[in-house]
Amino acid sequence: MRAARALGPRPDPLPLGERLMSYGVRAPMFFLATAFFGSLALIASLFEKSGRWQHRIAQAWARASVAASGARVTVLNGERLTGQTAVYVSNHLAYMDTPVIFSALPFQFRIVARHDLWKLPFIGWWLERSGQVPVDVTNPRASIASLASAVRTLRSGMPLFIFPEGRRTETGHPAKFMQGPAFMAIRAQVPLVPMALIGTHELLPMHSKTFHPVPVILAVGEPLETKGKTMKQVEEVTARLEEEIAALYYEHSWRKKTEQNGPPPEHNGTEPLAGVQADSPQGRDVGKLEAVRISRDLEVTEEARRS
């Protein structure tokens, strides 16, 4: 296959030859890899419950998927990917973000994802059987159990990965972050590792069915320590995390920070921890109180579980 070109704006429309290559070769290879490795993972789940075999299969699927797309992935500051127990966080640009993350992170981890993905055939079965963590971002009060599950996963020594924006961006720019990653890291007293994905939006943006092979970068930042921090600092840590990932992104992207950034996640009736933006007075005051309240509810939940 032709090598990936320099990263820049995605042509619209794509050249005819590139579209034919995508429909005739890249997409079929991608779906074949997904069907093969997905079936293999479901079979493996019948024999082991820890999810470790399934994670290795997912990594093999990810490498095959990235190869099929024609992208070339470069990891910057890869020495920071030590596999320490932490919450690993990245911006969310496109569908191919997940294969890139699984192919680039060289250690076992579990993902925190929207609970509605568990309702999908095959994908939901794999998520459940491999030990991934569902979170209901639309209703924090209903997500206390899932937050407790995420914290328990971290305390058991297993790293977690999460997309803090809650959805893919349509503009290619990082969007506003939810407070979940900071909440979980502070609650478990583990670091946050900021990472920026660059190029996956040009590779396969939302609503597109054709691959545009480009170089893809995963830039890894310095871990952000949370030891000694409290729930009252969730907003502060979230803002710092968002700044670090944005800085990594714009340092390596062809896009400029002065351009119109993507809209924040929709506030569709959610509570402050999930939906109120940190840069509003309401978010600063109510968000802190909500984080403290849910933390106390978590303590009650964990105490009830132990008794």
Describe the SSE topology.
Blueprint: H1 16-45, H2 52-69, E1 72-76, E2 87-90, H3 97-104, E3 110-114, H4 123-129, E4 133-135, H5 144-155, E5 160-162, H6 180-188, E6 192-198, H7 200-203, E7 215-220, H8 234-252, H9 281-306
Parallel strand pairs: 1-7, 2-5, 2-6, 3-4, 3-5
Antiparallel strand pairs: 6-7
Continuous helix count: 9
Question: What about the largest sheet?
Answer: 7 strands, mixed
How does the helix and strand content classify structurally? alpha/beta
The residue fraction in helices comes out at 40-55%
> Strand percentage, roughly?
5-15%
CATH class: Alpha Beta
* CATH architectural name: 3-Layer(aba) Sandwich
Cα-atom radius of gyration: 19 Å
How many extended strands?
7
Terminal Cα separation, in Å?
Answer: 59 Å
Main sheet: strand order: 1-7-6-2-5-3-4
**Overall body shape:** globular
CATH topology call: Glycerol-3-phosphate (1)-acyltransferase
Question: What order do the SSEs take from the amino end to the carboxyl end, as H and E?
Answer: HHEEHEHEHEHEHEHH
* Mean pLDDT over the residues: 84
Low-confidence stretches: 262-286
Task: Provide the domain count.
Answer: 1
